[in-house]
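Aim 2 progress update. The chain analyzed this quarter is reproduced below.
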Amino acid sequence: MKPGNYYVRKQDAGIQLLAWLKVSLKLDGGSCNQLIAAGCIFIDKKQVRDPKLQLKGGARVFLKPSHKPLKTNQKKAEARVVIPMPEIIYFDDDIAIVEKPSGLTTVLHAQDKKEFSERDRKFMPSTLQDILPDILSVHTKKKVPYVRAVHRLDKETSGVLVFSLNKKAESSLGKQMREKKFTRRYIALVRGQIENQEIRSILVRDRGDGRRGSSVKDPDGELAVTHVKKIESLGDISVVECELETGRTHQVRIHLGEANAPLCGEKIYDRPLNGRPKPDPSGIDRIALHACYLSFEHPTSGKILSWKSSIPPDMQGVIEKLREEKNKAPD
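Predicted structure tokens:
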């Protein structure tokens, strides 16, 4: 468990702080007590020093970095999954704008629900849509019963997305999505060089090698359009902006991979059809894709709203490292 914000699941409500930390941080009791005593634990922005404090579902736990080495205890680390904490950027009676961290699934696809029984789904990690009602209830001081994802980001993809908080808003936003009135932009780190272009293709479930991808033969495919703009060239890696004209599953990942400029951290769509994976010099441990801009018409007021999201630290770290290497390289 790294320093940062985390979320206490509803089913973990009532557990004592020390017990939650032992399981979540994969540390022994002594190390957890050391963190508590050192003032490294904050709950809902308040520093806590009571190891027996009972946690509430929906609570935000912030772990401040410790300057002393801590001993891990893997034998006691199997009971719970720690969920990265999303950030609420904006909310009103109709919508919630959320910045999703990497490592958190937005919502289960319909196909996922079909493949698992209701009993098995109870043991799957919570999604953003699962935990958002509790988080919003903390902000609004009242129960938020209706939360629906309007669009999705992949589990490893970070960034900004919108949830509807009532059926009317869900209908309005869904209509805007179908009519292509949403503006969605991503910042991505890709391997190699790619020029400004519009990528337009028909996406199918199997392009011929078992992966989703483009095909000219399948009449049942879906049109996908991505506009790519190069932002910066950093040797073997480029920083690009991708704007979606359509919103198909894994669209950006597929289009960049097939253009021979796969995302850094990509392990599925990391090659063209029948091609080999490209080397990945980035060292990043997740797909380097971040939803940095979102704009649409508010479902009630009709006002055009927009939100921006900064490049996350892991991607920014890769960029800064590559810039340093580029500046040190001989002319």
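Helices lie at 17-25, 29-37, 110-115, 118-121, 128-140, 167-178, 251-258, 313-328. The chain has a mean pLDDT of 86. These observations will guide the mutagenesis experiments scheduled for the next reporting period.
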